[in-house]
Design a protein that fits this description.
419 residues, alpha/beta, UDP-n-acetylglucosamine1-carboxyvinyl-transferase, Chain, 4-stranded mixed β-sheet, 14 helices, 24 strands, 32% helix, elongated, binds uridine-diphosphate-2(N-acetylglucosaminyl) butyric acid
């Protein structure tokens, strides 16, 4: 299994181009199932999760080619099953449920099962589908959905759910009548999906707000669309500049998508100049400890919690970090402690007392964002850190060690067998 060796202490300097967002590309890819024909997606990042979604679509009969753009031909879908082998490696596979039900009125999707960051059930997706007339059964670990017809409904999500909103928005596009989603997710990726569905002929209003109205149409047609820049990758590289006391220009991003994140960096004393599609970030060596709690967009994203915690480990005081989205997203804490961080957990809150220096140590990646936080901690630590299980990182960060070494990080991937 590959590992990363990181020698800390080098301030980063230079430019990093931000890739397309994984969490935008995945729903767009799933959405191609809703309209028969050839679709084209640009700015799709080359990541493991994208490969998994390609495998899933191919399993169902789609023909996928990823040259500069990703072309997906959904003319010949012959299998309406998302198998356990694929869903267990990537929970976002559940995003095919809505489009399959919309177009074929039938779908069989493996239940995702456990997850390192929390229980992550899909009960809210299923409840909303039932309200739209889908009969749901659980058979041999699979959710089987069937509907004679899908009908519009008023759906109030008890909790904000990103893929839940996306799934139901897709299902509603071809339903009879009007569907209203209340307490909908407002993430930029939801807006991007609504834009794409509209290009296919869907009637959607209100995406980006907490109430989305979808008026069902008879049919959609294929379309071309560009994946939005990855706001979490951008936030991670902001943290890389800040934690090393370096200066980076992050290019090709949408600064308006990371306002809650960039504001926290400013509060922590990091200088930032924000342009139309770039951010210049400069760490000055001193990091002020600030408090953070994670919330649905436009709040501070849970997907940046671990990376921000890495920064706070060398803050000048005490930082309280409350995780309000996932109940178990603190797996990085024990690993950071191995590097000398002083963190106490109290339920959903981490109390992070800044230390002068982290020290390099062997650590293990446990999920995607936890892995990124360990890379950040390693960049700031004295000595060498060896990070194992980095396959998590490859799921969601395009060419991370190449991007970082191009701006001066001493980071190397070592291929190896076993752990
Ligand atoms: N929830 C339920 N029932 C449901 C759905 C959600 O109880 O049916 C709960 C979850 O357990 C969680 C909360 O609601 O406590 C929010 O979960 P949400 O459904 O919004 O998460 P998701 O859609 O499964 C997406 C991202 C995650 C990101 C979360 C939160 C994609 C493909 N995944 O997951 O991204 O953390 O929203 O913003 O968009 C990542 O990229 O590392 C990642 C985990």
């Amino acid at each position: 299994m590959d590992k990363l060796l990181v020698e800390g202490g080098a301030p980063l300097g230079g430019e990093i181009r931000i890739s397309g967002a994984k969490n935008c590309a995945l729903p767009l890819m799933a959405a191609t199932l809703i309209a028969c024909g050839k679709h084209r997606l640009s700015n799709v990042p080359r990541l493991r999760d994208i490969m998994t979604m390609r495998s899933l679509l191919a399993h169902m009969g789609a023909v996928c080619e990823h040259a500069t753009d990703l072309e997906i031909d959904t003319s010949d879908i012959h299998t309406l099953t998302a198998p356990y082998e694929l869903v267990k490696t990537m929970r976002a596979s559940v995003l095919v449920l809505g489009p399959m039900l919309a177009r074929y009125r039938r779908a069989r999707v493996s239940l995702p099962g456990g997850c390192a960051i929390g229980a992550r059930p899909i009960n809210l997706h299923l409840k909303a589908l039932e309200q739209m007339g889908v009969e749901i059964a659980l058979e041999h670990g699979y959710v089987v959905g069937e509907a004679k017809r899908l009908r519009g409904a008023r759906i109030v999500f008890e909790q904000v759910t990103v893929t839940g909103t996306e799934n139901i928005m897709m299902a509603a596009c071809l339903a009879d009548g009007v569907t209203v989603l209340e307490n909908a997710a407002r993430e930029p990726e939801v807006v991007a999906l609504a834009d794409y569905l509209r290009l296919m002929g869907a009637q959607i209003e209100g995406a980006g707000g907490d109430e989305i109205t979808i008026t069902g149409v008879a049919e959609l047609h294929p379309a071309c669309c560009e994946v939005i820049p990855d706001r979490i990758e951008a936030g991670t590289y902001l943290a890389a500049a800040a934690i090393t006391g370096g200066s980076l220009r992050l290019k090709g991003l949408r600064p308006e998508h990371i306002l809650s994140v960039s504001q926290k960096f400013v509060d922590a004393g990091i200088s930032m100049e924000i342009g139309d599609d770039f951010i210049d970030v400069r760490g000055n060596g001193r990091i002020c400890s600030v408090n953070v709690d994670t919330r649905p967009y436009p709040g501070f994203p849970t997907d940046m919690q671990a990376q921000f915690m890495a920064l706070m480990t060398i803050g000048d005081g005490v930082s309280l970090i409350e995780e309000r989205i996932f109940e178990n997203r603190f797996m990085h804490v024990l690993e950071m402690e191995r590097m000398g961080a002083d963190i106490e957990l109290d339920g959903r809150t981490a109390i992070v007392r800044g230390v002068k220096k982290l020290s390099g140590a062997p650590v293990m990646a446990t999920d995607l964002r936890a892995s990124a936080s360990l890379v950040l901690a390693a960049l700031a630590a004295e000595g060498t850190t060896e990070i194992t299980r980095i396959y998590h990182l490859d799921r969601g960060y395009e060419a991370i060690e190449k991007k970082l070494s191009a701006v001066g990080a001493r980071i190397e991937r070592v291929s190896g067998k076993g752990e």
